[in-house]
Amino acid sequence: MVSKRRLPTSEDRGSLTEDASKARKQPLSKKTKKSHVHNEVEENDSVFVKLLKTSGITLKTRESQNQLAVDQIVFQKKLFQTLRKHPSYPKIVEEFVSGLESYIEDQDSFRNCLLSCERLQDEEASMGTSYCKSLIKLLLGIDLLQPAIIKILFEKLPEFLFKNVNSDGLNMPRLIINQLKWLDRVVDSKDLTTKIMQLISIAPVYLQHDFVTSLPEILGDSQHADVGKELSDLLTENTLLTVPILDVLSSLRLEPKLLTKVRKLVMGKLSSVTLDDLPMIIKFILHSITATDALEVISELRENLDLQHCILPSWLQASQSKLKNKGQTSSSGNQENSGQDCVILLFDVIKSAVRYEKIISEAWIKAIENTTSVSEHKILDLAMLFIIYSTNTQTKKYIERVLRNKIRSGCFEEQLLQSTFYVHYVVLKDICPSVLSLAQSLLHSLDQSIILFGSLIYKYAFIFFDTYCQQEVIGALVTHICSGNEAEVDTALDVLLELVLLNPSAMRLNAVFVKGILDYLDNMSPQQIRKLFYILSTLAFSKQHEASSHIQDDMHLVIRKQLSSTMFKYKLIGIIGAVTMAGIIAADRSRSSSLTPGRGDLSSEQCTQVTSLLQLVHSCSEQSPQASALYYDEFANLIQGRKLAPKVLEWAGQTIFNDFQDAFVVDICVVPEGDYPFPVKALYGLEDYDSCDGIAINLLPLLFSQDFVKDGGRLTSQESDQKLVSPLCLAPYFRLLRLCVDRQHNGNLEEIDGLLDCPIFLTDLEPGERLESMSVKERSFICSLIFLTLNWFREVVNAFCRQTLPEMKVKVLTRLKHIVELQQLLEKHLAVTPDYVPPLANFDLETSEVTPHTSAAVSAKIRIQGNLGGRKRKADGSKISSPDPLSKEDNSECDPAPSDRSPLEKEFRGKEEKTSVSLQNYHAFFRELDLEVFSILHCGLVAKFILDTEMHTEATEVVQLQPPELLFLLEDLAQKLENMLTPSVTRRFPFLKSKGNRNIGFSHLHQRSASEIAHSVVQLLSPMCNHLENIHNYFQCLTAKNHGVVDGPGIKGQEYHIMSSCYQRLLQILHGLFAWNGFFQPENTNLLYSALEVLTNRLKPGEPDQALEELLSQSFHYLQNFHLSIPSFQCALYLIRLLMVILEKSTAPTQNKGKIASLARQFLCRVWPSGEKEKSGIPNDQLEALLSIYLEHTDGVLKAIEEIAGVGVPELINSPKEASSSTFPTLTRHTFVIFFRVMMAELEKTVKGLQAGTAADSERIHEEKLLYWNMAVRDFSILINLIKVFDSRPVLHVCLKYGRLFVEAFLKQCMPLLDFSFRKHREDVLSLLETFQLNTRLLHHLCGHSKIHQDTKLTRHVPLLKKTLELLVCRVKAMLILNNCREAFWLGNLKNRDLQGEEIISQNSQESAADESEDDASSQVSKSKGTEDSGEDEASDGAKKQESDESDDD
């Protein structure tokens, strides 16, 4: 049998089985080739060899494998039984082990014992596996031999620790340790553990790593704790073993305390470890987290993990110039790849943890959410939010909410986002779809700052990601543009525009996607169309790339198609597209203005292309006045916004100048003759023309000709020879002419300055006695004439406002005065022409159908009362786009109509203005004023009152800005700031309203950024402060003259109202400027400093370089000084809001917060002049706002509420019907509901914010909180009992709504306090509950009253209120049980009563369904009497406590 099994193995070395050890496969076979052909069998008479042979193993010499003739299990069983049943047992075991020890003294024999045996296979024994264990491993599986063999191995192992690897490639120490792995049973595991740990302590580092990582495969579960402790100690001694030790600790079953200790140890070393070790360390930390300590661990990990400094500098450099550098040295390349691999591996570890462990992902988000300081946020925070967003779908909404809050608070800014992409672009690139999905979600927000952040994600994704991801970014942006959502479209176009300028070469690769937007132009606004065509034109006509002809062809095709349309909507697209494209082609490409004009100029081909394109637009639009005017406006915007090549400017200048002169300018000596409905006169000329060489604007004849042709009349032969031009184009064409001349002559307008003072062919515009006798058509004609004249003057003021010569300034101011006068006339005419639609003045509209915002009811009222005004020669009042009744001084210089004003007219002035039309409704029909016009504010202000007291008969200065003109400018500036600087979310229009309406009349303004506009307003701060101080002095003098009497002489005067409105507008403008959220952006910090320095210098001039806090404090003090002269409640509210905005920017607002509360109280306690629209003169919403500000900023909210409700209201009750409270004059019977609602809301808000407290708090804290709740309940009681006097429906509604909320707050915040305060403060607690019970009883009566009257607005609050009151009863019972007073509680049925205390007999009234939603309309409280049966809770000492039990007997 033995010889048969030997023969095959001696001849065929290929039958050797494959061992698990990789190092010994091939070297063994190579060595064997050099050895003897015949392998020798170990011949030895020792017990060791004999017993092995008997059991089935034949030992071989040299390098041959030991042969196993039987199955491994059979061998172990045979040997065990042989030893166990041997006569000399247990001595035979010692002899066997001694034989083994002698045998393995030979290194080759020892090696053979460590290597796997060769399995002899034949037909009989082929059922086992092909792999055979080594002899030593087989012997270790026998319990009798295991301890002795382990001892031998550990004695033998040190011989090989410091030897090099054998020539056959085997590492003996590793081979020895491998024998101990995966043993079925360890007899003495403690001893084995001790030996291994001793071995690790003396082994070289490279073997220590192997020994440590082998521990989990060697040790049993019982030794995990001991090994864990020893490894943790070793971790502190040897940092080189950090990674293998942590790897092993992750695999062991250890106590949480030990893991926490190791984790803290590792966390402290986190900042000093190498990048290669970081993945394993982070893996251990994340795997050791439990639900209880997750947030704490993640927060600490977030603070200590600073990847920005771990990542190799070479990788950062490579990331910055990855597209530019073509090659690097091999060492730096390997280093870079290694760094990238480690970072990718690290984030793979983190991804795996947050994907499969919900507690880790939630804790990480929570840790970021809890970080409040801006400086504490790291680039890892944003990267982690992106990663968790991509791996965990359940937390997406949570991440979006956290991200939005961080953006709003300013914690996540552009710099942080840029750094995140810069450092982690490799990681973020792999989750590109999720990053873009998050950006898409942010773009759907209503908050402008969040939308901006979403756009920045798109921007940096395009810049840092690869070509595929760039294509995805462009696809996402195009989707936003085609969505139809205005904010999304604007933002996406802005991003595309920026990307075109930053990386045009990459954008050209994606131009085909951008070009697809041309199919979705229908739903885009004119401003969006401009941006789109600018983007496409830049891509199509850049010189560096000539392969863009397909884009050019498509653009030309679209433009020609739209221009040829007969619908204005499509013609508008064609005009805007053509002019924008022409601007890109004709752009002046010279580097500097100092270069010669010819250098960088257009080629003749390009010049021809531009001129032919513009001529095409002109020819396609000349049949439509509206289209022509739009073309002129677009061309003017192009010239104003971009520097065009000299050739194009020269061509445009000659063409425009000649065409304008031919169309609109005539000689003044040639008075037009014709069948006009009114006599033609040259009016509003600023100079006397003695000769016939003057010019005039031919307005009335042109308007008549247009209307005549429209009505189907025939032209005379003379008129038919001339080209008919619409007067609608007068103002747009002049704007184009002016800007062209301005560009050509660097701001010098001498060529056209005659147009500033030339007269206009009009007729007498004063309505006089003719107004009633005019037909509707004639009235409409006069209205159109005034509108066109106004728009002409507005463009003239736009053109010449920056001229510096004194005589030019005088003329501009005179034109401004003419505008104010004409607006007064226009209001009178519009009052009797209710259905009139004016000629358009702004033409970049999405629809040509624009009508004034007037209602039929208002029109009828105006029509009736307008006739009364029509019988007067001239009115004094001027609305000037303001609802306030304002008027103008009679200082007209050039108005041909007499300006006599009778006392009767003055008497009727107020009545007429009440019924006149507000020009605010006609804002869209006036030409837009440029921002440069407001340089006129630098002129001084002269008020008539001051002149009269100083006994001057005329102004001492020639150039003076009068109050009506000042108000006109301030009104317009306030509208501009509201449109541009007010956050869009606060002025968002309801769904389905025309999205472009709010921007009509601001198209030129929207050509500029918000920062530019804010900068322009800051430049105007100094003159506005001058005007503010002058008006302040005016009202101070007026108050002194009237000895403080509110309704003294002059209060009702026109000048008083104008100056008051100027005051209000100035404060409104300052508030709009400082409330602009752009000041929080780093690039605008200097602008904020400049604005604050202007205000500070008014108080303390000449103090440079002050800190921001000092500037804010001085500015606050400066503005606060104006409170003494505030003329109206509206001004007071604007001043308070302005001070609040200044306060918000301060880091220490506590002191000034009290000043705001004090100021608000002064305004509430002040008697204000009565208004004309409302009995109190104070709008309800403004009173509510000011009262809320007072209660929010005061230190003692409860005391303030008690003062108003306990002092002011009783004064009101005891006063006559139309009187007010003496302490709070703003508190009247009409405004009581406002006061009541605000006090109830603030009371509920205050107690809701009070912490409930715990039993661990000190006794002093308990007493303070109990005292606070006593005050709150007392205030609540005072307010609730007011319904016995004021029982109007709004008061009752507020009582139901906020009464329930207060009871809920009492349950959540106060009852826990009473639980542990009852024993020590029994009397105080009982007194509090008794007072509160009376209030809840009154609320119960109110529920019955609501149901009896079946008022649905009231009854929908009843079910929720009753539920809350029932919970209160149960909660009080629980409190008594907690304090061992169960027997003190007893319950009875509470009868239903009405507000008068009468019992409700019928209990069959139908309950209204509980409705969770609450109405925001004002509602309040009513009378109630509180005598009824109730449930009583008795304390054990005889004190009684009553609690209402709401019961329905239905």
Question: Could you explain the architecture of this structure?
Answer:
With 1450 residues, the protein is mainly α. Helices cover 58% and strands 2% of the residues. The protein has 60 helices and eleven strands. The protein has a three-stranded mixed sheet. Strand 8 (877-878) and strand 9 form a beta hairpin. Helix 30 (526-540) runs antiparallel to helix 31 (549-563). 41% of the residues are buried. Residues 1-38, 312-333, 591-599, 712-722, 855-915, 949-958, 985-996 and 1403-1450 have low confidence and may be disordered.
Helices, by number, come to 60
What does the overall shape look like?
flat
Q: Strand order, biggest sheet?
A: 1-2-3
Helix share of residues? 55-70%
Outline the low-pLDDT stretches. Answer: 1-38, 312-333, 591-599, 712-722, 855-915, 949-958, 985-996, 1403-1450
For the record, give the distance between the C-alpha atoms at the N and C termini, rounded to a whole number.
Answer: 104 Å
Q: Provide mean pLDDT, rounded.
A: 78
Secondary-structure-based class equals mainly alpha
Offer a concise description of the structure.
The chain is mainly α.
What structural keywords apply?
1450 residues; mainly alpha; 60 helices; 11 strands; flat; disordered C terminus
List the helices and strands and how they pair.
Elements: H1 2-11, H2 25-34, H3 47-55, E1 57-58, E2 67-68, H4 72-85, H5 91-103, H6 107-114, E3 118-119, H7 135-140, H8 146-156, H9 172-178, H10 189-202, H11 205-218, H12 224-237, H13 242-251, H14 256-268, H15 278-287, H16 294-304, H17 307-310, H18 313-320, H19 330-356, H20 358-370, H21 379-391, H22 396-408, H23 414-430, H24 432-443, H25 448-464, H26 467-481, H27 486-502, H28 504-509, H29 511-515, H30 526-540, H31 549-563, H32 568-585, H33 604-621, H34 625-641, H35 646-664, E4 665-667, E5 681-683, E6 695-697, H36 699-710, H37 717-721, H38 730-744, H39 754-757, E7 760-762, H40 776-800, H41 806-831, H42 856-870, E8 877-878, E9 886-887, H43 903-915, H44 944-949, H45 963-980, H46 1010-1019, H47 1021-1042, H48 1054-1074, H49 1085-1099, H50 1108-1120, H51 1129-1144, H52 1150-1164, H53 1180-1193, H54 1197-1213, H55 1232-1248, H56 1259-1281, H57 1289-1317, H58 1322-1349, H59 1352-1355, H60 1358-1378, E10 1431-1434, E11 1440-1443
Parallel strand pairs: 2-3
Antiparallel strand pairs: 1-2, 4-6, 5-7, 8-9, 10-11
Helix pairs in contact: 3-4, 3-5, 9-11, 10-11, 11-13, 12-14, 13-15, 15-19, 16-20, 19-20, 20-21, 21-23, 21-24, 23-25, 24-25, 24-26, 25-26, 25-27, 26-27, 27-30, 30-31, 30-32, 31-32, 32-33, 32-34, 34-38, 35-38, 36-40, 38-40, 40-41, 45-48, 46-49, 47-48, 48-51, 49-50, 50-51, 51-52, 51-53, 52-53, 53-55, ...
